[in-house]
């Protein structure tokens, strides 16, 4: 057999049937369901009198528009309440396993899946949310789907898919102080652009990636979609197996050992061909952030905002100017020192315990700058409880941060946590599109440590000055 | 799903690249539990002022483009969130064909699944079609899926590529699920084989 990549191996092992035009019926191992993209799918099933084929391969959780303040109070926004209640009705009617709002296991679906051992190496994992790519960190093929596909998976446990092209992004070397997985991924997106990965599944490899913990790998895979890729993945290794061991829904005991024996085969063959290879040196990556309204507008924190006049393509020049105007920045301005109004530490990109520790290390002994609203929204109830056991909540609260309940929160502003027009936010989330965090809001994407640095200084800051 | 055969419609030119799904339908409008009714919020940020009044310059606020059935843009249309609300919003507005030099993967797929035809054409051709579109009611375009051509107002025909399976599903207005369920036997066989070879694969059960 021809040499195969990791993606090829996972793909091949899930093909149920190949149709005439090359489309495959691909078997799906895990279907993650949340309140925003599922109601119309359940409605579709109901209309056509269909059932869920594999409720035991499905998990539902509420995350996108749950309030992150006191959960014992009724949900104020009627439409949010309606979506949450609709999901609860649907999971009962269709017999879907569910982590309810008041469960400690509730959280952002992409934090909950790996944390519970639901997302495992070698699996195909889908969810009606583009950041499903996060689960690729487990060594799984994980990607976002639309609501029609959600319904398709519910009814058939499969998807109609064409194979993707293979891309490998190799990062070698040792990261400098203050440089995190988020900086690595932003640097990658800055290099290949938001369409650089279109049509590809990206495998992340190299000593820098191998050296990351699972949270860091999840941050990287999470933002594969911002690089245009269908999915991102990292070959499973000892770090992965140790992470999975003992998780509630993972195989246990003898079954775990059998699983590991299989998972160890999940590496690309030595001479496997990639359609595209991109290489970066860890030493070349400083702490970075975005200045504009596209995730590829990445600059070093020591850098300056680009000048549209330097752009020769007229359409691109106009777009840069529009971004500058929207972001309220001047061409050539130094990015460090730009004052922020809000700091958001959270989202499926950066709300795991490791992220909170890294932010807390900067915050400890300091105070949120006057006039800045800073909040931490843990990725799940489990992360929150763990942080509280470690005393991180005290670090944040004593410094003047808000300490919230788990959910997507200000990542997309579907719940009451949103920016007001013109507000500038240092955010650990993954998208900085116009209005993403609230109409007129201005988002700078950066790492949890950099977000913490912005909170305590009141402006975009090179975190290395604080360590 | 409605069949897509031949569409003759006013085309709206929107010469921008990277129009993401947040722009097509901002997240705060995703709270519906139905597929319909999102058309009034399509392109909300570009279309309305903060106070809810219309921005008179935005193409879809101008005649005759309020009745546009085709949208033409620059590269990477539909990037960002995978929300299917984006095609629903377009469809509810009345747009059932989008033309661009390139599309984001998920959005491209989602269009087909909702009866919208996405057509990839080179940038120069998109620009030429935008010039046609600027003629307004005199610049109607015809999209003939069976023959795989876009017909310009002067009668010139521009051919486009489309996956044969997708073409058939659109022409027949067929949904994928029914198609796949014809292979239910193969799915059961696959499941049985996996249960034999990978008995450790856990099931999700919550008591
Ligand atoms: S945290 Fe943000 S990006 Fe992640 S699933 Fe929620 S809304 Fe999507």
Structure commentary:
The complex is a heterodimer of chains A (467) and B (207). Chain A is an alpha/beta fold. Chain A has two domains: 1-285, Aconitase, domain 3 (2-Layer Sandwich), CATH 3.30.499; 289-465, Aconitase, domain 3 (2-Layer Sandwich). Helices cover 31% and strands 16% of the residues of chain A. Chain A is built from 15 helices and 19 strands. Chain A has a five-stranded parallel beta sheet with strand order 5-4-3-6-7. In chain A, strands 17-16-15-18-19 form a five-stranded parallel beta sheet. In chain A, strands 11-10-9-12 form a four-stranded parallel beta sheet. In chain A, α2 links the parallel β3 (30-33) and β4. In chain A, α6 runs parallel beside α8 (214-222). Chain B is globular and about 65 Å long. In chain B, the strands form two sheets. A four-stranded antiparallel beta sheet of chain B has the order 1-6-7-8. Chain B has a four-stranded parallel beta sheet with strand order 2-3-4-5. Chain B has eight helices and eight strands; from the N terminus they run ββααβαβαβαβββααα. The model of chain B has no long low-confidence stretch (mean pLDDT 93). Chain B has a single domain, classed as Aconitase, domain 4 (Alpha-Beta Barrel), CATH 3.20.19.10. Chain B is α/β, with parallel strands linked by helices and 207 residues long. Chains A and B meet through α2, α3, β5, α5 and α10 of A and α4, α7 and α8 of B. The structure holds iron/sulfur cluster. Iron/sulfur cluster (SF4) binds at residues 63-64, 108, 110, 129, 131, 347-348, 408, 411-412, 429-430 of chain A. Residues 63-64, 108, 110, 129, 131, 347-348, 408, 411-412, 429-430 of chain A line the site of iron/sulfur cluster.
